[in-house]
Amino acid sequence: MTSRRSFLSGAGAALVGSALVNRASAAAIPEAPVHSSAATQAPLAPTSGRPYNPVVTLNGWTLPWRMKDGVKEFHLVAEPVVREIAPGMKANLWGYNGQSPGPTIEVVEGDRVRIFVTNKLPEHTSVHWHGQILPSGMDGVTGLSQPPIAPGKTYVYEFVARHAGTFMYHPHADEMTQMAMGMMGFWVTHPKNPRQHAVDRDYVFLLNAYDIDPGSYTPRTSTMLDFNLWTINSRAFPGVDPMVARTGDRVRIRMGNLTMTNHPFHIHGHRFEVTCTDGGFIQPSARWPEVTVDIGVGQMRAIEFIADNPGDWAFHCHKSHHTMNAMGHDMPNLIGVDHRGVAEKIGNLVPGYMVMGDKGGAMGGMKMRLPENTLPMMAGDGPFGPIEMGGMFTMLKVRDGLARGDYKDPGWYKNPPGTVAREWTGEVPEAARATGSTPAAHDDGALQVRKPTDHQHGH
Ligand SMILES: [Cu+2]
Fold first, then answer.
1. Which residues fall in a compositionally biased region of kind Basic and acidic residues (predicted)?
2. What is the count of structural domains for the chain?
3. What does DSSP assign to residue 212?
4. Strand 381-382 vs strand 272-277: parallel, antiparallel, or unpaired?
5. Ligand 1: distance of its center to the CA of 339 in Å?
6. Which domain holds residue 94?
7. Which partner from 46, 233, 414, 443 sits 20 to 30 angstroms from 182, CA to CA?
């Protein structure tokens, strides 16, 4: 009886105590906003702290904060999420605050930042603030700079964002698994002076890759190189939103690479300069023009250009396998093989079988039967037919007279009359061909074609 009474009073005390703790912690820890959609959200204009020009996260969003005694407070929740990779395919990933990648964090040079990290994963985690110059104990490397954040626990990080630039965050805990599951987010530290490095439109995204077997939902986490989904912010084209600009806008695109290989990103119709890396902004005198920038593993690059060429321009990784979705890999090469009737016969035995490089790459237009939850290898539809692209591909859409802050997809470009490549219906002269075996070709020092069966002639 006595023990029962003391048990009850003890339990009551514990209840009162935990209620107090909950009230206290509600004040101590800011709310953790959650986002479930993969649509690009409007830039989040700052409502407290120093002014800055916000970025636009492609198919993502910026994490709201609260000011507390002059400190910017954020709350990240590491948790399992469902991400739509593109219409028709969803993946079971891990991320932050409802999505993978997690929300973009935007602060201003000199800000004191406090970030609460709650772990709702089934295993321990940590967060590393890639590129930040901070105290060693805030660097987020499990075992080296801090103990692991156990499931259910909340840790707090605090440091000053010391220099303006382009950064990211990701776990330094069971990385092979956690990065392969999509745990990462973008971080932008804006310059103290909002006029410094100012642009009209500032887009950000991370490059990631997944290995999700056709017909399944969860990435294989032990894959080292042979990924089958190459993604921009965990979206594959045609799931990647276009980047929109008004003619004459100065545009910045910031990209970070958290895959296992490099990605040479290429722009059409424009030239750019690399203006910022994860080490900070580059002096104008040290920049040079490019149309492709290689983004190495673990690197970030920001490019800038004037969008002075109206149109719909491809913007993509130049590795052709990285603009393919899952079905593009491990296919036999049957170019030149006479397979009349064969494809149909094999197709009956092997669903999804198709012939590559035949009939002018009919892949994009072919409506093949796919396993559930599987993207066609290249799927985008354009104004002139299938775009025959997937993966790390999107578009820059430049239009005259857009309003400032208008990021809506303007639809397809209306080309001025006479400016579209067209079929030639006139006479087609015979194409000149070099045979390579004429004496003239030798004398010119032109390309010599060695013909192994021809040894008895010449020489
Ligand atoms: Cu690539």
1. 441-459
2. 1
3. -
4. unpaired
5. 32
6. 35-313
7. 46
